[in-house]
Amino acid sequence: MVQVLKYDLVPFEDYLTGEREVEIRSEYVDGLVYAMAGASRTHNTITSSFHALIETHLREEYRVWQSDMKTVIQHKGQRFAYYPDIMATCSILDEDEYICTNPILIVEVLSDSTERTDLKEKFDNYTTIPSLLEYVVVSQDVPLIRLWRRRTSWEREIYRAGEVFHLESIALNVPVEHIYRRVRKEVGLEIA
């Protein structure tokens, strides 16, 4: 006998309303709500270093957020809401203070539990956002940056230790090692 799992789908508006009052954030994938796990020290340090570099570089009319601002996407009749590790925009279009629907840059820092989602599901959905110019995925185990740009039809670029990549969306040159400067030992840049 085969058992079928039954899921209760959550209406999108209920998710948005409820998300403002919860202690544990969740992402929304076409009716299903997934609680987000906490991130490691290494993950948080990498994210903080990258966010700080972007924040100090941006012109005043730009905004950048780290982990607590969600982006909402509608793709192929489905709705999604994610909390990117870093997200930047050059204009605020949304009246809802908790949402950004027009990011120009999204950065995700990989962990073992998010790798498949960040490289497939989120990639597929993020790249449908009309305003998005670049999607960056940062490894937390080794100094490795993967970058996709709308301008190149989302063709992947790879950058490693000793290299510098350019974020066209915000006109910023980023040395790969700068992102990992506080976790050099953890990612193999420094031998103990």
From TrEMBL:
Domain Putative restriction endonuclease stretches: 12-169
Source organism superkingdom: Bacteria
InterPro entries tied to this protein: Nuclease_put_TT1808 (IPR012296), Restrct_endonuc-II-like (IPR011335), Uma2 (IPR008538)
Signal sequence range: none
UniProt keyword list: Endonuclease, Hydrolase, Nuclease
Keyword Transmembrane in record: no
Protein's UniProt keywords contain Hydrolase: yes
Pfam families on file: Uma2
Gene Ontology molecular-function annotations: endonuclease activity
Residue ranges the record marks as coiled coil: none
Family annotation (PANTHER family): GLR1098 PROTEIN, RESTRICTION ENDONUCLEASE DOMAIN-CONTAINING PROTEIN-RELATED
Name of the protein: Endonuclease, Uma2 family (Restriction endonuclease fold)
Organism per entry: Thiothrix eikelboomii
Lineage, top ranks: Bacteria, Pseudomonadati, Pseudomonadota, Gammaproteobacteria, Thiotrichales
